[in-house]
Batch of 4 targets.
Target 1
Amino acid sequence: MNEDNHPTTGMIHMISGGATDGDSGRARKAHGRKLENFEISRGADLPQDPVISFEPEDLRGVVTPHSDALVVTATIANYDVARIFIDNGSSVNVLFKSMLDQMKVEGFEFEPVSTPLYGFAEHAILPLGQIVLPLSLGTDPRRVTKMIAFTVVDNSSTYNGILERPALKDFRAVAFTYHQKLKFPVGKGVEVLCGDQKVARRCYERIVKEEEKRGREQSHGSLSSVLHL
């Protein structure tokens, strides 16, 4: 497997918990205690990243006003994967089993996970496992590749994957939904990954339809139970 994600092999169109801080209670407690011994860094010790800012010019090509999610295309394990939802509020990066099956990745270890995910569905779900894959953002010559841990979930979704706090931290990336941009440092400069509003709206429409269908089925099931009492 070519871990630098280039050239790509093909194109695929298509949360708290998990093992991000460790897959045991002891590991998660140790992660929390790290802050107890934290020493404030001096200026000389801080990373010298370029300044990331968002200007009115970043709205060029963006349809406003809007409340669209930030949905991008990224390269994962040599595949250009569309419908990647950027969510900087959750604790694990997610890949869906249906998408991973299409990729047919080989040479990467798949590890079981015992820590459930919460807030992902109506109830806690147990992931299938975790896999570390190369993720690339940007285009040559300003492409950046990192090895990212993904939690694999066997659930239906309008998205192929979700990039969350761990991946954004590794890329030192800043997401701004209003500007439909994800920016991250590349050397002394800043690379920009643009969201796709059309894809974001199609995903939203599909989510709403699926939720309405699920609500009707649940209501029908409840009514049937009452009628059979």
Target 2
Amino acid sequence: MASTSSLLSSAVTEEEVTLTVKWSGKEYTVRVCGDDTVGELKRRICEVTNVLPKRQKLLYPKVGSKLADDSLLLSQLPLKSSLKMTMIGTVEDDIIVDQVDSPEIIDDFELGQAEAVDIKDKEVNKQKLRKRIDRCKIELRNPCRNGKKLLVLDIDYTLFDHRSTAENPLELMRPYLHEFLTAVYSEYDIIIWSATSMKWVELKMGELGVLDNPNYKITALLDHLAMITVQSDSRGTFDCKPLGLIWAQFPEFYNSRNTIMFDDLRRNFVMNPQNGLAIKPFKQAHSNRDKDQELVKLTHYLLAIAELDDISHLDHKNWESYNEDTFKRRRHA
């Protein structure tokens, strides 16, 4: 193994090294590895500066525009810990405007089963998950409960239409949200995981009355810093939400057999495809809120499968058919 001194004087390799980043008159240190991407580097910088990755512009001698490619591996760049990197970026003052102005991900995709398994089983992606587990400690808002399953929920387009405008955020809340959370709380602990910043997660969930509701409790909140960047042969690199992060920190409560995740982007559960349910996006709230019944139907599904000891064998793509079959069985019982 190379010595620490030789690592610090050479370009970034697979070993972990420390880089110095200058921003707003101060210097910050971040630790990265060669198999990290530029996007991962920006995530590390965000942890110490609170400047979101999408707001960062990185400057480094002789590297230039390459640092604008979030998918590029750091091992492909001549980064040395002896040189300092400059970051230009601003911490948002108006987080709501930030969400409206941010680019929307439209091209969601569903990977083939073989490639999805390959991504999940790739050693480089497993290594990224292990590093994320070491670096990201989940802070509980409420205790985990013995015997309960786990429901992990996205925010944007899952619980809330973050693109439409309204004078009152409650106008953009998905119909039956509180009824849904109240009903499933009897069988599930609830974790909310958004690809945005923690500031925005706390603000939006607070405005919607989710964090202090007397009828249910939220176990924890996670943001984009808990995500990892994975590599796909057909789709390149992209971020996802690995449930293994939660399972590793609370193994006595949660595992692949008792966890389900709702997200409008399938890519977000590529590291745990058996546990993901692609929810219909809630968009154009003003015209759709009177007819959106998704959370009502999903309440029935969650309560029905809560009776099972192991839900990992279910095909959540067919959740609506499962509801129909359950109704028929009970009607003829």
Target 3
Amino acid sequence: MKRKREGEGRATVTGTGSSHDGGSERGYEVFLSFRGPDTRLTMADCLYNDLICAGIRVFKDNEELRFGEEIEGGLLQAINDSRIYILIFSKDYASSKWCLRELARIVELKRANAEKVILPVFYDVDVDDVKLKTKLYRKALRKHKSDYGKDLVKKWKKTLRKVARIRGRKLKDHGYYLLLH
């Protein structure tokens, strides 16, 4: 994907998490973490397009991973290289092992580097769902326990609660533009 940014030459964003501008390497500025079936065709796509139009280098899995590229390696590289993480918590976010793995890695990176920024968005869920005070995410995590073990699920629970303490935005499907204003 190529685009011309104001004040710059041509910038090419590649699926490896870097862009080239006169030979210098730069990672993504923003990594979007979301549950595809819940938000891909609504909030995540709109946010991604708005950020790209604003000239921000943003990683969204289906847009940035190249055909034939290892999914896990590409995702981890993009997470490592990004500075800002927008976490879109939706009804089925916790049912995805990929979302929970991304989340755990993001929190580890934030702990190690204070310059990293986490921006949670509670999309058609309550903060209490992410804090595991309701059945919604607890039920999803119970299903993961048999596949991934109680230690990993315990880590994911701790991570969810930690991120839920960060002030974020609560949005309903019709309230996407509240995030940007």
Target 4
Amino acid sequence: MSGDGEKSDINKTIIPITSPLYLHPSDNPSLLLTQTVFNGQNYELWADAVKNDLDAKNKLGFVEEEVKKPEIVKGEESLESLAWRQCNAMLKAWLRNVIDPKLHPSITFTVTVAEIWEQLRSRYSAENALECIN
């Protein structure tokens, strides 16, 4: 906030509703993306359901690493950087809600939702299971 009582530019700018960085007022950390809970055995079914629901919310680009974290310039967090951080945190919460709590320790220290997604895909996808057998 500036010294003259005016709000900073970050508070004057709005994320467009069509942006993947936009969070709808009804989006919250307790949202269940799907009724399918990942239990370590049903990765393909779970991943398909989650990807469909993230696509419907315009957030699929986060797990597919198409929505990159904006760089912070000169120590100043831009609106886009703040929005990206908030979306990433929201999506991490949404994924945790549809992953069996017994599997949470394996994703606890991940920074981005894309890292969670890649860890689960590399560990549990049928494609990788076949590679491990050969």
